[in-house]
């Protein structure tokens, strides 16, 4: 067993710290969604159309730079150590969040959100550290537990964003969030133990890149799977409120029902991620990936045929249960299929693919929903998920 592949005796504590840090930094990335247009107005933008455009640019800016930088941070983690990258990300996010609270114009807000994505990457860095420091027979469970914390942050962030600003003000909300992430920085610096420091790369390894991987088909399959996961979750976002309005007779209940529908999938994934990860450790990560994709494809069929809001809520929850196993299994397959010194870089590419799915999903869903019909969004996503399951089965065998 090589030093880099040996498990860390402190892996459980490292996992706990990574979960807490990932939870807080994901909250920071999603916190401003409910009050972002109000903040843009406070910064001097008055035209309603401009408010919407600036809000969209500010929200997407963080994910854009995060997607571009994820492979770089992963590569640096392979070279200089995973803990160092987590320290950088938590401190950078803490500073960025505080600066966002000091913004004086809309362009400064967008620029600082770009900076937050550039300096961040705590969740993806945590995936690298947990994947490489955990015993191989517990990797699926550990990554599933970490994924639950990430998805919980996505769920809690907008909720806190709706509660805190009326109580303490928008700017103080950013300051409080920065202080919370700074606490994660201290915990990371003081509590994480990375005993097996990555060895310096061999001559020529930095330029070998993908050529150093014996078989790239499994890796491309995992990149596609990560993208499909986010696409399946996000394709419904642009049409959900209008779709729910067709199912709920009381107009006053439309917004609330749409919010429950969007939260149901995240809740299902939170509940299932660690359990499916544990199952994958027993029966094989790739088997669980194929089963999850196939189950999601089947569950999309009745979503296109529902006649009541509660039916859509239930089906999205079940779909979340099915999709919860994908992220930990994708990371596990990548971890076991690439050379030891390239795990961080390749997991970074996986993160970028997932961010791409977050961008493509809403765009594709909005286009298909507007030009073909809202139910066609579910049918189209079903075909994509079934195709992903078939391709993974083919590559697996």
Radius of gyration: 21 Å
The computed structural class is mainly alpha
Q: Determine the fraction of residues in helical runs and give it as a percent range.
A: over 70%
Q: Indicate the proportion of strand residues.
A: under 5%
Q: What general form does the structure show?
A: globular
Number of helices: 17
The total beta strand count reads 0
Low-confidence stretches: 1-6, 203-207
Give the topology string: H per helix, E per strand.
HHHHHHHHHHHHHHHHH
Distance between the termini: 27 Å
How would a textbook summarize the main sheet?
A: none
Mean residue pLDDT: 83
Quick structural summary:
By secondary structure, the chain is mainly α. The chain is 79% helix and 0% strand.
Describe this structure in words.
With 397 residues, the chain is an all-alpha fold. Helices cover 79% and strands 0% of the residues. The protein has helices spanning 11-30, 36-42, 48-80, 82-100, 106-119, 122-133, 139-168, 170-191, 205-208, 217-234, 240-247, 254-283, 285-303, 309-323, 326-337, 343-371, 374-396. Helix 1 packs parallel to helix 7, helix 3 (48-80) packs antiparallel against helix 16 and helix 6 (122-133) crosses helix 16 (343-371). The radius of gyration is 21 Å and the shape is globular. It starts with 10 loop residues before the first helix and ends with a helix. The relative contact order is 0.15. Residues 1-6 and 203-207 have low confidence and may be disordered.
């Amino acid at each position: 067993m090589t030093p880099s592949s040996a498990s860390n005796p402190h892996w459980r504590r490292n996992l706990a710290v990574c979960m807490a840090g990932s939870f807080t930094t994901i909250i920071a990335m999603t916190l401003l969604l409910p009050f972002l247009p109000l903040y843009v107005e406070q910064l001097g933008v008055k035209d309603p159309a401009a408010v919407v455009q600036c809000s969209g640019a500010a929200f997407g800016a963080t994910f854009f730079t995060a997607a571009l930088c994820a492979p770089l941070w992963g590569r640096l983690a392979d070279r200089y150590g995973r803990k160092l990258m987590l320290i950088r990300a938590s401190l950078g996010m803490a500073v960025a969040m505080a600066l966002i609270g000091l913004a004086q114009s809309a362009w400064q807000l967008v620029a600082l959100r770009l900076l937050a994505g550039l300096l961040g990457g705590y969740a993806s860095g945590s995936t690298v550290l947990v994947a490489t420091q955990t015993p191989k027979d517990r990797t699926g469970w550990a990554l599933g537990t970490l994924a639950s914390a990430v998805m919980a942050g996505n769920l809690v962030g907008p909720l806190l964003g709706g509660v805190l600003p009326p109580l303490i003000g928008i700017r103080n909300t950013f300051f409080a969030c920065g202080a919370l992430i700074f606490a994660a920085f201290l915990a990371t610096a003081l509590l994480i133990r990375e005993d097996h420091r990555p060895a310096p790369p061999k001559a020529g390894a930095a330029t070998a890149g993908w050529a150093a991987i014996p078989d790239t088909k499994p890796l491309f399959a995992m990149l596609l799977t990560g993208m499909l996961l986010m696409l399946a979750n996000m394709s419904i976002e642009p049409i959900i409120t209008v779709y729910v309005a067709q199912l709920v007779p009381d107009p006053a209940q439309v917004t609330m029902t749409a919010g429950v529908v969007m939260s149901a999938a995240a809740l299902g994934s939170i509940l299932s991620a660690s359990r499916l990860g544990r199952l994958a450790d027993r029966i094989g990560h790739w088997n669980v990936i194929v089963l999850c994709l196939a189950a999601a494809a089947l569950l999309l069929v009745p979503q296109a045929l529902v006649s009541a809001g509660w039916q859509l809520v239930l089906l999205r929850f079940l779909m979340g249960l099915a999709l919860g196993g994908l992220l930990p299994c994708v990371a596990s397959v990548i971890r076991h299929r690439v050379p030891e010194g390239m795990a961080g870089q390749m997991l970074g590419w996986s993160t970028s693919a997932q961010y791409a799915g977050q961008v493509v999903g809403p765009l594709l869903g909005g286009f298909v929903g507007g030009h073909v019909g809202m139910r066609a969004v579910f049918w189209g996503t079903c075909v994509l998920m079934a195709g992903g399951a078939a391709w993974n089965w083919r590559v697996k065998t």
